[in-house]
Write a structure and sequence with these properties.
Layout lengths: L1 H25 L5 H17 L2 H10 L1 H22 L1 H22 L19 E9 L11 H14 L10 H5 L2 H20 L1 E2 L1 E2 L6 E5 L7 H22 L13 E13 L2 E7 L2 E4 L12 E2 L2 H19 L5 H15 L16 H7 L9 H13 L8 E9 L6 E10 L2 E5 L10
Antiparallel strand pairs: 1-5, 2-8, 3-7, 4-6, 5-6, 5-7, 9-10, 10-11
Helix pairs in contact: 1-2, 2-4, 3-4, 6-10, 8-9, 10-12, 10-13, 11-13, 12-13
Length: 433
């Protein structure tokens, strides 16, 4: 009687449990797979057990019942492990990457997926405001003085396209692609700034881009900044080699700055091409050539130089019909008429000032010179002259002895008809000796 009641109670327990499980599955609270696994694990014990097995459970007592419970639990866990885990750990991860790869390969990435696919699929704009600056040094580590460069630039304006100090083409030889295009645009820009002044912000072609070699087809923000800086620096270095005198206004110590608001990487074969939005590159002007700040160059000095050179050539043209000797005398007289000796600069004057030549021909009575200006003006007029005979002019400097002690001096030597003549235009002017 006890055995049968125990069997009925045990069977009723599993029937009720099955109904409850069925209701939970129908209501959506228990997952269908989990429900099936639980029922399959429970039903054989409830329906197939014989009375003999049931009596063994009763005779063994709580310990045997506990062991049976442990075995049932183990069977349930094994069932779940065998049926559910392979699907969760193996099947699902294989499907998701495949879907993503197919999406990237077959169609353009959506805006929502842009951040996850950055640098991998099609062009994705990266919103990032960047502003950086850098300085430049010459290859040898020594920087040329800006005034020395301006002097050479002034000489070019005076001597024109005579073959003296021509523009080189180093950049044309080593640059290619977008770098070469940038070089050509900037070369025209700095030449214009040298002659006319203006903003030192360099024009950037709309289709300019940089190329970053990348086996993975990706490029980090830091890699983009570094490659852009390398490109800008490379182009400027080429310009400093090819046209250093047009760069007389550039402050190599302060250097340059660049900024952009966003960039777009595009994956190509083994590389990433990066284009920019709002890219600005600004070269910094040296203090003595600024106009209201280091991003503007005053054009007054270059324009004044060009005007002085034109005036000097007019003097040569006006005396073209004279003999060689008459030309030399006319040049000496005209220089003395145009300029006076600058006694205010008598002490502490260093040679090499580019303005000494310019002041002679600038038509401004307030800009006077020392001996350097007289000698260089005479040299220039001789250089620009087509003499009938073999006439050569040289400029020399040394020490001049006078009754008051003398000092450093600059003058000319002219070879005329096989004889050398000392020409001291400074001391030919009134009140100088």
């Amino acid at each position: 009687m006890n055995k049968r009641r125990s069997w009925y109670l045990f069977t009723a327990f599993f029937i009720v449990a099955g109904l409850i499980a069925s209701d939970l599955g129908a209501s959506g609270i228990m997952a269908e797979d989990t429900q099936t696994a639980a029922m399959e694990a429970g039903e054989p014990m409830a329906l197939d057990e014989s009375p003999e097995e049931e009596s063994v459970v009763d005779e063994e007592g709580p310990m045997a019942l506990g062991e049976a419970a442990e075995e049932e639990s183990t069977a349930l866990e094994d069932s779940i492990a065998d049926e559910e885990e392979p699907m969760a750990l193996e099947e699902a991860p294989e499907e998701e990457p495949t879907a993503l790869e197919e999406s990237i390969a077959e169609e353009e990435a959506s805006p929502e997926a842009a951040e996850d696919a950055m640098g991998v699929g099609g062009p994705i704009t990266v919103e990032e405001f960047v502003e950086e600056s850098d300085t430049l040094t010459a290859g040898s580590g020594e920087l040329l003085d800006n005034d020395m460069l301006f002097e050479a630039y002034a000489q070019r304006l005076f001597y024109g396209d005579s073959g003296i100090m021509p523009l080189a083409n180093y950049g044309q030889e080593i640059l290619e692609g977008p770098e070469l295009v940038l070089y050509q645009v900037w070369r025209n820009a700095i030449t214009s700034i040298a002659a006319n002044g203006g903003s030192t912000q360099m024009p950037v072609p709309a289709d300019f881009y940089i190329r970053i070699n990348s086996a993975s087809g990706t490029a980090t923000s830091e890699a983009v900044k570094q490659e852009l800086n390398n490109t800008v620096r490379k182009v400027i270095n080429c310009l400093m080699v090819d046209c250093p005198y047009e760069f007389y206004w550039f402050d190599k110590v302060t250097g340059y700055s660049y900024s952009y608001s966003s960039y777009t990487p595009e994956n190509t074969d083994g590389a990433v091409n990066v284009s920019f939005v709002g890219l600005k590159v600004t070269l910094k002007a040296a203090v003595e050539y600024q106009s209201g700040g280091n991003t503007m160059v005053s054009g007054a000095k270059a324009q004044k130089t060009a005007e002085a050179a034109a005036k000097a050539r007019e003097i040569v043209a006006a005396n073209a019909g004279k003999s060689d000797y008459e030309k030399l005398v006319a040049y000496k007289d005209e220089i003395c008429r145009l300029v006076s000796y600058n006694y205010g600069a008598l002490s502490g004057v260093s040679y090499g000032n580019p303005w000494q030549l310019i002041y002679v021909f600038d038509g401004d009575p307030s800009t006077n010179v020392v001996c350097e200006g007289y000698a260089k003006a005479f040299q220039y007029l001789c250089d620009m002259t087509d003499f009938a005979g073999d006439v050569v002019c040289y400029t020399v400097d040394g020490v001049m002895s006078t009754g008051s002690g003398g000092g450093d001096h600059m003058w000319n030597i002219v070879t005329l008809e096989g004889k050398n003549y000392l020409v001291d235009v400074t001391n030919s002017d009134s009140g100088t000796i």
